[in-house]
TrEMBL record:
Keywords attached to this entry: Membrane, Transmembrane, Transmembrane helix
Domain of life of the native organism: Bacteria
Name of the protein in question: Uncharacterized protein
Entry's transmembrane regions: 45-64, 76-94, 126-145, 152-174, 186-206
UniProt organism field: Agromyces neolithicus
Length: 226
């Protein structure tokens, strides 16, 4: 299998992450509270979401390889952080697919799901949230600067963090009744899932470019002469 075919397969992997993410979000429970997890298909939903991020892991090396010569140190740092970002989400979704679903059946589930409890500690957000969140910002900037892909791809990757943070801040500012209304309308899922969909769509646009890659373009991925 030649390098051109590997790059096209990487592009396909990036593109496949989008429909998988949409499918996982479509069957996601109204919230991730204990009551909703017990009577829902969270395990199936998060297994599909994990698979979407596994496809990102498979596609990212090919994507980075196509612009490594043009993106320099910024691209390398962004790529490493992006791999950590994606790998962390694979872990988190699998953690919520198996252990969290299992603990929801425990007689002490309310204590386990309490704020600061075992379930929350297992997500590792306390230690990894800040550094992991830098990945899409730095890698998105690198994608924009390479001018190897449509600029919208990089901007969509960058947009994940501000959209995610803005939605969570606004949601937290609502009274409990308002939050429950949004849960009932599934708007909370749309807001958070939509921020990730922006990121995945950006990478899929770059993946589409990889899928259409031709051997004549190979030289364009090499370093630019100074």
């Amino acid at each position: 299998m030649n390098e051109l075919m590997l790059r096209r397969l990487a592009g396909m992997a990036l593109m496949l992450s989008v429909p998988l993410w949409i499918a996982g979000e479509a069957i996601h429970p109204r919230s991730e509270g204990l009551a909703d997890i017990v009577r829902s298909g969270q395990s199936q939903s998060h297994a599909i979401l994990a698979l979407a991020f596994v496809f990102l892991l498979l596609g990212l090396p090919g994507l980075y390889g196509s612009h490594a010569g043009r993106s320099g140190v910024l691209g390398l740092v962004g790529y490493v952080l992006m791999v950590v970002f994606v790998a962390y989400h694979v872990y988190m979704f699998l953690y919520e697919t198996g252990p969290v679903a299992f603990m929801a059946q425990d007689s002490a589930a309310e204590r386990l799901f309490a704020h600061g409890g075992v379930v929350e500690q297992g997500t590792l957000r306390m230690w990894l949230a800040a550094p992991v969140s830098l990945g899409p910002i730095i890698y998105g900037i690198a994608l924009v600067r390479t001018r190897r892909f449509p600029r919208v791809a990089g901007w969509l990757v960058i947009s994940w963090l501000p959209v995610f943070v803005a939605f969570n801040v606004l949601f937290a500012a609502l009274p409990p009744a308002g939050q429950e209304t949004l849960f009932d309308l599934r708007f909370a899922n749309v807001g958070i899932g939509g921020s990730y969909l922006l990121l995945l769509t950006g990478l899929a646009i770059a993946g589409m470019r990889l899928w259409r890659w031709s051997s004549a373009e190979e030289s364009l991925s090499q370093p630019v002469a100074q």
